[in-house]
Amino acid sequence: MFRVRWLGRVAYREALTLQRGLVPSSDDHLLLLEHPPTYTLGLRADLNDMLVPAASVGAELVRTDRGGQVTYHGPGQLVGYPVVTVPGRRGGGLTDTVVWVRSLEQLVIDALADLGLAGAERHERHRGVWYGEAKICAVGVRLSRGRSMHG
Fold first, then answer.
1. 68-122: per-residue pLDDT in tens?
2. How far is residue 36's CA from residue 113's CA, in Å, rounded to a whole number?
3. Three-point CA angle 69, 79, 99, nearest 5°
4. Most buried residue among 21, 92, 125, 143 by CB atoms closer than 10 A?
């Protein structure tokens, strides 16, 4: 079964705990929410990547086990966390992760086109979805044992 839930504004750590609790479920979930000001550091991030200390702008700083670097989450940004079983080889590693990220990017591109915003695309060297030079969707995921989280 596929379950979609709107959660409103939820602290990042609380949303992460909720996702981790859903991973063992056989159901697939899409959590839709927004966060208070938060910077997350993915596996490739370094604190030196921060232009200003998170606390100086009233934001929380959280290290995560998702891929990627630094991401800002804040009020007004729609965040979608798919906690789902991902088709592919179990233990496919980086190959399956890249395919999954590309699939999510294409899903967003198609949805934006359906909503009248044609021309969104991906950049070859940068993850996410772009409209011209503006990044309009970040994608950071963690795949483990065939399940995705972190959206």
1. 889 999 999 999 999 999 877 665 666 688 888 899 999 999 999 999 999 999 9
2. 28
3. 60
4. 143
48 three-class SS: helix
Residue-by-residue DSSP string for 61-84: EEE-SSSSSEEEE-TT--EEEEEE
Average pLDDT over residues 25-40: 95
Residues 6+ apart with CB under 8 A from 114: none
Q: What is the pTM of this model?
A: 0.86
Distance, CA of 42 to CA of 141 (rounded, Å): 9
Closest CA to 151 of 70, 50, 61, 32: 32
Residue ranges of domains in the chain? 86-151
For residue 27, what pLDDT is reported? Answer: 94
Q: Pull the structure tokens for residue 85.
A: 């079983």
Q: Looking at residue 134, what DSSP letter applies? A: E
What is the amino acid identity at position 83? V
Q: Residues 122, 72, 150, 92: is their CA dihedral positive or negative?
A: positive
Among residues 16, 66, 75, 12, the alpha carbon closest in space to that of 39 is found at 12
